[in-house]
């Protein structure tokens, strides 16, 4: 049996996964608030919850642009996979910071990760790769749509 993943299928898989993560982190956030003396959740528990919900709908938006892609099906899959991968990595990072409760700002130097720190070049490299994948991947799809209405 061979499994063929299309760009549209990957978008739906990501949307469902991100939405479920949003629901689960919402429960986590509620439990933190309910058991906190000041009725608040850790910053990155809140961020993970909101980002997962936001990225679930972003994945659906990307899916709507797939039919307009100027690329081959394989190229379109790559254009979609880039943003979705970085959405997932961002959510995972927020969940990790929520579990560790190690920072309230992951961009503040030095970049805290648990008891250690990340090199500045690693964080900058990740952010540049994220921007390239997200903006570039969606940019190709948007360009295809704009060509279709011109």
Terminal residue distance: 42 Å
Arithmetic mean pLDDT: 96
Describe the largest sheet.
2 strands, antiparallel
Q: Outline the low-pLDDT stretches.
A: none
Helix segment tally: 4
Structural domain tally: 1
Determine Rg (CA atoms, Å).
Answer: 18 Å
Beta fraction: under 5%
Instruction: Indicate the structural class.
Output: mainly alpha
Question: Could you characterize what this model shows?
Answer:
The chain has 150 residues and is mostly helical. The protein has one domain. 73% of the residues lie in helices and 4% in strands. It is built from 4 helices and 2 strands. Strands 1-2 form a two-stranded antiparallel sheet. Strand 1 and strand 2 form a beta hairpin. Helix 1 (7-35) runs parallel beside helix 3 and helix 3 packs antiparallel against helix 4 (120-149). The mean pLDDT is 96.
Summary, kept brief:
This protein has 150 residues and is mostly helical. Helices cover 73% and strands 4% of the residues. 29% of the residues are buried.
Features:
single chain, 150 residues, mainly alpha, two-stranded antiparallel sheet, 4 helices, 4% strand
Itemize the secondary structure elements and their pairings.
Elements: H1 7-35, H2 43-65, H3 73-100, E1 111-113, E2 116-118, H4 120-149
Antiparallel strand pairs: 1-2
Helix pairs in contact: 1-2, 1-3, 2-3, 3-4
């Amino acid at each position: 049996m061979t499994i063929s993943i299309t760009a549209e299928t990957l978008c739906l898989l990501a949307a469902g996964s991100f939405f479920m993560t949003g629901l689960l982190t919402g429960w986590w956030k509620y439990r933190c608030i309910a058991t906190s003396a000041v009725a608040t959740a850790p910053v990155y528990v809140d961020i993970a919850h909101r980002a997962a919900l936001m990225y679930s709908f972003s994945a659906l938006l990307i899916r709507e642009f797939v039919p307009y892609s100027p690329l081959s099906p394989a190229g379109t899959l790559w254009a979609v996979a880039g943003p979705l991968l970085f959405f997932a990595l961002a959510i995972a990072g927020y969940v990790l910071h929520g579990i560790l409760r190690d920072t309230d700002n992951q961009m503040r130097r030095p970049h805290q990760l648990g008891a250690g720190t990340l090199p500045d070049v690693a964080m900058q490299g990740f952010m540049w790769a994220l921007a390239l994948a997200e903006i570039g991947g969606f940019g190709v799809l948007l360009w295809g749509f704009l060509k279709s209405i011109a």
